[in-house]
Amino acid sequence: MLIKGKLKNSIIEQMMGFKGIATDIDPILLPDGFLSEMENLTVTNQATLSSILAPLLIGFPSGLTTDPIISIFNWKRDVAGTSLLMVQAGAKLYSYNGTTFTLIKTFTTTDRASFSGGFFDKLYIMHWKDGFFSFDGTNFTTVSEAPRSKYLLLWQTYLFGGGDLYENKTTAPTDYTYAPFRVRWSGIIDDKFESWYESGTNSAGETVNNFIDMRTPESSNITGMGVWNRRIIIFTEDSIEEIVGSSPSNFVVNTIYRGRLTTINNNVGYYDFVYYVSPEGLCILASQDILISKAYQKYWKTATYYGIGIYDGKVYFMNGEDLGMFNTQTKFFEHYKYPLTSALYSSKDDLYLGTSDGKIYKWKGETTYLPWSLKTKKIHYGSLKKYKRPILLSITHNLSAASSTVTVKLILDGVSNTVGTFDASLKTIDEFILSYDVFKVAQVELSGTEEVEIIGIELMSKIRGVGYV
To answer: What predicted TM-score, i.e. pTM, was given to this entire model?
Structure first.
């Protein structure tokens, strides 16, 4: 917001009422309230910028030093208030009861396992190479007559498996078919999900098999599964399909979209809509599938690890150590960064991070703060031709509880200049008298490693005529 300064022929750029980042817009054209870069800062309900607490280390499996955390699942058990955190580090699967990590299974490969719980105090686990298992908190049991797939989904009283599916029917007639486009399910019989290869009949007396083939023209692989609005959503490499119906006897398959964005490795979350991570960023499936993270695109890149978690009404998504946050209320984005991040998972009460050096964290649980930084939009006072001389830079902020050093830089026509530092615990307005050469375009950059809450940034400059020396 531009206002006329008190000094003759001077202008103030006044930035306050922050909203988030918008990296898909030229910083010269950014609307009020948006930043061109932001890291480890969050926008408060008062539209200020606040640093965030570091994740809290809750533990790591005994002896584990280098195996990356690739999968996390919070199993809420039937006994009220009890749960086990399931953690896959490399090929090893651990349970964590809040105190101790216990190794319960070593898989033959490091393929990411899928989990589902909710019936008879049992957890069901699918591993693409090793198959289907049940776990009751003590006993880890192999279910021999079950497919091998990458993804597992619980819907009503059925478990669904899909993604790079291999049949694994060991009794006659045997079947070991590779069917990457197939979704197979098991109903619950005798307190168990072990009816993967048992067929049924519909109201017309016709045989109903326990599978559906998502036969796209390309016979593409299934990349993820989810449940939304009483239907099963199936993501393939080149389409989004849905299974509609109350039971296998009346399942109907419809194509929602073809040739559109799809998910990476079943990174799907649910809140008001279905959110999923695609190769291009965060997408939403509502009345149509939409890439919604264009404002975040500066930080989106190809990574080894991806993840998504919905927590406290916000959608968190990651590609490597970069973490994005989409606020479902304001519809704005924020950007965080945490080294070595390899997994992201949300339960009802917590958001978890896993790292490639084998550690598990709770988001924002520490008492120290993450290093933070920001860059404003590019300031030109409505004219890219006129020369300006910077006069005064003011930072308004709330007092920090302890000493907090903030570094202030001014970027003039692409050249970074260190203006100085201030301690955010001493006063609420810090001003810097400037003595730099004339400029056409300016940016303000702030950074620190401790607590801070920025209310506003003001740059006063004196306008000079074209050709001024």
So the answer is: 0.92
